[in-house]
């Protein structure tokens, strides 16, 4: 029997396919997994995959990518799948030709009928007996992927070519998978992986597959476990706190790491109470979740966690620049020098330069450069020159982040042949000639980075690019974070149904005035059960409370401390 798993990146198909393989082996079946442990079993297929993921190859066209992906699947078929089926094994794959139809047809926009003959040729007539579509909310999948990178230490890894297109690609690919499943319901089972423990999904999957293997008739079905019900009533700004923490507590029982990660940067007593409960089990994630917080409880937690997870504590400082942060960075340097040095962005204090000088002497030039973004002093240019001499082009480019000067622009020009994506990232918030030129050049191949580089830019050219991009991907809304102008509100309103979680997050930092509340209430009512929407909405509300508290007289702040004890200092 040939079983294929499909789904968007971050859906959980790799984990579930490997769990199924292990369970079937324990039940006595001979099983071959063509991507055991997450790695393609054909060395040739692995090399082809590396080529299609290479972010330097932005000019690769959709057809070229399609044929390379077909070559990868054809090689897996010839080298792994066909021999396993010939031996009589149950053969499991993690992606097959359906993925190429979904990516190139649904995702890239080519016509499926033009792609099918090539897929038939690559398949040699061999298609799966059963396809498991692991379906998930794309926003939730993205959160899980981000968490996975944090846990594996790959948070700073570069995006793949596919990732550079933007989060909208996953939405279109998911829609294409669902369309394929509807066309061939006897072959496909849809397994929803949104809000149930992995062990429950695994058992439902094993039951369905074993029934097929034993020839027992089963109705075609969506394997949809019952979700945890939200609190009664209509979701709104007024009850978003209760709903968010209700959802977090339900999530903690099945995905504790994700529950801790969702608290990232959120102030307040309720958030801190949960961090304290998670701290012993998940110290690294708790430390990172303190990102940017500058209240007493956050500092107490950092002090407690600094001995066990120093690098995570350093990462969780964010842009905090208080005297306490300088002292903590000094203490953490010996255990986590690179994390400390990279966290010095926008800092030109004597304390920051003392750490940089120490880092230079200790051989951490790359980390020093990464922590120079936003710093435009003679000392910083000496360090950049040293980076150029060492050919650390990407790090030098990233050190130019936010700098709008002739000197910075000239260096960007020199760096474009070496790492144009890093140069593009350095233009975030700027409208310089280099920024404009790179955006026009890379809009098709790296739309995500192009749109994010527009953050805060308020020019006709930027708005035209956002409005084009909003039809394709959510990063168009990322670029209006904190903006309070008519075109920003118009874009939010028009994109609220397509990119609800991102529209909500773009309001962080804005006061809870009538316009903010109205849009938040609308999205919460429409998307009440979606965790990414709840999380972002509560982050907006919690931040607005901090801003309001900072503007009140001291006595009022004390009186409200029981409600918002975790507020940030002004």
UniProtKB/TrEMBL annotation:
Entries under Pfam families matching the protein: Thymidylate_kin
Protein's recorded name: Thymidylate kinase
Encoding gene, per UniProt annotation: tmk
GO CC annotation: cytosol
Chain positions recorded as ATP binding sites: 7-14
Enzyme class, spelled out: transferase
Segments forming domain Thymidylate kinase-like: 5-192
Family the UniProt entry places it in: Belongs to the thymidylate kinase family.
InterPro entries for this protein: P-loop_NTPase, Thymidylate_kin-like_dom, Thymidylate_kinase
GO MF term (any one): dTMP kinase activity
E.C. number: 2.7.4.9
Function: Phosphorylation of dTMP to form dTDP in both de novo and salvage pathways of dTTP synthesis.
Gene Ontology BP term (one): dUDP biosynthetic process
């Amino acid at each position: 029997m040939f079983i294929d798993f499909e789904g968007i990146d971050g859906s959980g198909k790799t984990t579930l396919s490997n769990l199924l393989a292990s369970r079937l082996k324990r039940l006595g079946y001979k099983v071959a997994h063509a991507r055991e442990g997450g790695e393609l079993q054909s060395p040739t297929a692995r090399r082809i995959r590396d080529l299609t993921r290479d972010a330097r190859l932005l000019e690769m066209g959709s057809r070229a990518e399609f044929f390379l992906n077909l070559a990868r699947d054809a090689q897996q078929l010839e080298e792994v799948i066909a021999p396993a089926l010939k031996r009589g094994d149950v053969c499991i794959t993690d992606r097959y030709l359906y993925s190429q139809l979904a990516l190139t047809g649904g995702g890239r926009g080519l016509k499926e009928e033009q792609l099918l003959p090539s897929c038939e040729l690559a398949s040699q007539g061999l298609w799966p007996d059963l396809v498991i579509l692991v379906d998930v909310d794309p926003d939730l999948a993205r959160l899980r992927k981000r968490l996975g990178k944090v846990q594996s230490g790959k948070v700073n890894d570069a995006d793949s070519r596919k990732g550079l297109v933007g989060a909208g690609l996953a939405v279109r690919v998911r829609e294409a998978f669902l369309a394929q499943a509807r066309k061939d319901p006897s072959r496909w089972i849809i397994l929803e992986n949104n809000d149930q423990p992995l062990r429950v999904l695994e058992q439902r999957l094993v039951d369905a597959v074993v029934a097929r293997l034993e020839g027992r008739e089963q109705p075609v079905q969506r394997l949809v476990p019952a979700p945890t019900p939200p609190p009664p009533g209509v979701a709104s700004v007024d009850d978003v706190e209760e709903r968010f923490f209700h959802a977090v507590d339900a999530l903690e029982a099945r995905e504790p790491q994700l529950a801790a990660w969702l608290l990232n940067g959120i102030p307040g007593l309720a958030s801190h109470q949960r961090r304290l409960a998670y701290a012993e089990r998940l110290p690294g994630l708790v430390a990172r979740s303190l990102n940017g917080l500058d209240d007493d409880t956050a500092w107490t937690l950092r002090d407690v966690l600094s001995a066990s997870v120093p690098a995570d504590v350093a990462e969780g400082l964010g842009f905090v620049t208080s005297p306490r942060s300088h002292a903590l960075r000094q203490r953490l340097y010996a255990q986590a020098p690179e994390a400390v040095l990279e966290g010095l962005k926008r800092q030109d204090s004597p304390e920051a330069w003392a750490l940089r000088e120490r880092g230079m002497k200790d051989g951490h030039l790359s980390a020093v450069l990464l922590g120079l973004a936003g710093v435009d002093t003679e000392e910083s240019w000496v360090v950049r020159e040293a980076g150029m001499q060492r050919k650390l082009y990407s790090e030098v480019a990233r050190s130019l982040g936010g700098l709008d000067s002739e000197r910075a622009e000239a260096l960007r020009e020199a760096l474009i042949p070496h790492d144009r994506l890093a140069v593009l990232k350095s233009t975030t918030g700027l409208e310089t000639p280099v920024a404009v030129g790179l955006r026009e050049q890379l809009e098709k191949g790296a739309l995500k980075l192009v749109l994010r580089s527009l953050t805060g830019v308020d020019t006709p050219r930027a708005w035209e690019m956002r409005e084009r991009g909003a039809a394709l991907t959510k990063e168009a809304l990322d670029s209006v974070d904190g903006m309070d102008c008519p075109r920003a509100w118009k874009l939010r309103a028009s994109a609220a149904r397509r990119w609800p979680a991102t529209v909500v997050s773009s309001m962080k930092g804005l006061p809870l005035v009538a316009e903010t509340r109205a849009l938040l209430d609308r999205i919460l009512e429409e998307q009440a059960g979606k965790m990414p929407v709840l999380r972002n909405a509560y982050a907006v509300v919690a931040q607005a409370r901090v801003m309001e508290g900072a503007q009140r007289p001291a006595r009022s702040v004390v009186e409200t401390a029981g409600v918002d004890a975790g507020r940030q200092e002004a």
